[in-house]
Amino acid sequence: MGKEVERKFLVTSTAWRELAEANIRILQFYLAAGPGRTVRIRISDGGSAKLTLKFGSKARERDEFEYSIPLSEAVEMLDFAIGRVIEKTRHHVRHRGYLYEIDVFGGPLAGLVIAELETPEDVPDEMLPDWLGREVTGESQFYNASLALGGIPEIAA
Questions:
Q1: For residue range 4-30, what is the model confidence (pLDDT) as tens digits?
Q2: 8 Å CB contact between 89 and 23
Q3: What is the pTM of this model?
Q4: pLDDT tens string 96-105
Q5: Over 60: is that where the pLDDT of 142 sits?
Q6: What is the rounded CA–CA span in Å between residue 1 and residue 43?
Q7: What is the reported pLDDT for 56?
Q8: What gap in Å lies between CA 119 and CA 125, rounded to an integer?
Q9: 90 close to 26: Cβ distance less than 8 angstroms
Q10: How many helices (H) and strands (E) does the chain have?
Q11: Known catalytic residue: 30?
């Protein structure tokens, strides 16, 4: 089991693009979701798949279990997806020694760009990159499960 400690931010400019190290196409969907728990499948670049279980209701910290699964089984489970299937491209960007994962959403969520910073320590605001906008950690409408199962946040509409 791992602890997922993350902060989420809206991204307000494209200045990060010149710093991107990697691009991963992601297809992500949920099989089950309830208060404080989710079961998710993520297919990366059409070549690998993971099953992830997340538990906890704290905004910044949750318990996470992740397992590789056969791609063919992940594709088969698409038939059991609840809500919308999320399409996004994840970009890895380093800034001041920290790795930011920037998700550029497609499909009905096109226009939404969210950066995640997973780190156990608090990063002071002055260490954050200028291209980050408002912090949305704890705002449930910007979490992937809500994006799949709920409405589209106004910023992405």
A1: 578 999 998 999 999 999 899 999 999
A2: yes
A3: 0.90
A4: 999 999 999 9
A5: yes
A6: 21
A7: 85
A8: 14
A9: yes
A10: 2, 9
A11: yes
Q: Which residue has the tokens 């946040």?
A: 153
Cα–chain center distance at 108: 16
Cα distance between residue 136 and residue 4, in whole Å: 16
Which residue has better confidence, 62 or 89?
Answer: 89
Cα torsion through 108, 144, 118, 65, rounded to 10: -140
Task: Dump the DSSP string for 27-62.
Answer: EEEEEEEETTEEEEEEEETTTEEEEEEEE---SSEE
pLDDT tens, residue by residue, 41-68: 999 999 999 999 999 877 667 888 999 9
- Catalytic residue (one of 30, 67, 98, 143): 30
Q: H-helix or E-strand containing 5?
A: strand 2-11
Give the C-alpha distances (Å, rounded to integers) separating 129 from 69, 94, 120: 35, 10, 18
Q: Quote the pLDDT of residue 86.
A: 97
